[in-house]
Amino acid sequence: MQIVKVIGVGLIGALVAGLLRQEKSELYIFAIIAGGALILIVILSSLTEVIAQFGMLVGRSGIDESLFAGVLKIIGVGYITEYASALCNDYGVSSIANKMQLAGKVAIFFMTLPVLANLVEVISSML
Predict the structure, then answer these.
(1) Do 72 and 53 belong to one domain?
(2) Average per-residue pLDDT in the chain?
(3) Domain end marker among 14, 37, 62
(4) C-alpha dihedral (95, 97, 99, 105), degrees to nearest 10
(5) Which one of 2, 34, 68, 92 is most buried, by most CB atoms within 10 A?
(6) What would the pLDDT profile of 64-81 be if each residue is shown by its tens digit?
(7) This prediction's pTM
(8) How much is the pLDDT for 1?
(9) Is there a single domain that holds both residue 90 and residue 56?
(10) Per-residue pLDDT, 111
(11) Is 77 exposed, middle or buried (0-12, 13-18, 19+ CB in 10 A)?
């Protein structure tokens, strides 16, 4: 079970970060980044399985694969933006975190335009 590994790594990372915050506050952010990176490494195997299954579904459906790639990019931008924003919040700079979230939302909005255009094309061809 991947979630047990993720929770274990997260708890250890939080403990180390908590200890470093008191003893060596300048290393605190590095402990947070390292803990987050380890969690990402643990879940990568699960992500590859999900992406493969998603690709299989797209192959069966006959949908253009560029839509599949676009959706994955949108999801990736969302996850990366959320992660970076959480790091900024952990470091106490929520104003920068909020601006990162806004930038991520704007980027996602622009990335959805080709997907929406393709969707309109598919729907109009059905009519």
Answers:
(1) no
(2) 85
(3) 62
(4) -150
(5) 68
(6) 777 788 888 899 899 899
(7) 0.71
(8) 65
(9) no
(10) 92
(11) middle
pLDDT score of 103 more than 90: yes
By residue range, what is the domain housing residue 12? 1-62
Phi and psi angles of residue 47, each rounded to the nearest 5 degrees, phi first: -65, -40
Q: What's the one-letter identity of residue 55? A: G
Note whether 50 and 91 are same-domain residues.
no
Percent of the chain with pLDDT strictly greater than 90: 20
Say if residue 16 is exposed, middle or buried (CB neighbours under 10 Å; 0-12, 13-18, 19+): middle
Tokens standing for 51?
């992406």
DSSP state, residue 92: T
**Residue corresponding to tokens 């979630």:** 3
Same domain, 14 and 42: yes
Domain boundary among 9, 44, 62: 62
Do 75 and 94 belong together in one domain? yes
Q: What does the DSSP assignment read for 38-70? A: HHHHHHHHHHHHHHHHHHHHHHHHT--HHHHHH
74 & 57 share domain: no
